[in-house]
Amino acid sequence: MSIVERALRRLQADASASPTRRVFGKVVETAAAQAETGRVISIDQDALRVAGLLAPKHQERQIASQYRQIKRPLMAAAMGKGQEPLPNGRLIMVASAMTGEGKTFTAVNLAFSMAMEKDLHVVLVDGDVAKPQISKMFGVDAERGLLDAVIDPAIELERLILPTDVPNLFLLPAGTRSDRATELLASERMVEAMNWLLRKHERRIFVFDSPPLLVTSEAPALAEVAGQIVVVVRAEYTEQHVLMDALSRLPEGCSPSLVLNQSTRKSATGYYYYGYGVPEGSDANTSDL
What we know:
The protein is of the alpha/beta class and about 290 residues long. Helix content is about 35%, strand content about 15%.
């Protein structure tokens, strides 16, 4: 059985075993200054903690510290702090090889952590257009979003970005599903739309929750647009050859960051995250994978 076949079987098993996801947000009418459309997403952070999508109170400081370590090099490359900014470095894609590795957890917590920065706006983008979990979680799966603006140039993408009641945090839904999602994400229109957003607001970072690299064709297409890619690896779950196959799907010359998720082994520095950079060859730092 091929890696892709095993990934599809695992996807089907996860879908049948998982209970219906709860909704942790809803769109409400507001007169808040940051909501140009008069609408804002109200997020139930306590419910997110109970569901395990945000750190529980007793681990909040520890997890927050870890995400500070993860976000710093990403932000430096995005904003050019102490170095030249990467091309499209403010477009950060969070992916994984297969389902169940924690990419959505990582995308949400990374976006929340970055939103704590002063004078920085963070847009959490539901880039998993085939299985829009972010949109469902925050009650915006019926809203127009990314794919709608790529399909129709007359739709102003900026107006589809919804503010949340978390300071500096915004959300862009996946939008209307399409059988041509891969082609749309790989299109020149997608590139133009992203470039326009980057020019519109220079203090804005986009965090994309991506589909798994080995399960859909949309993820490699999205990777062509992103300036930075974070690949989430689940401890004691992701096999080394599966990870290497997933990394091979990324654009040539790409240097992704790797984050180890759900590790129970404490590193020498006291953090449970994995380092940055692509493993070099088969003998790379994969003993924990």
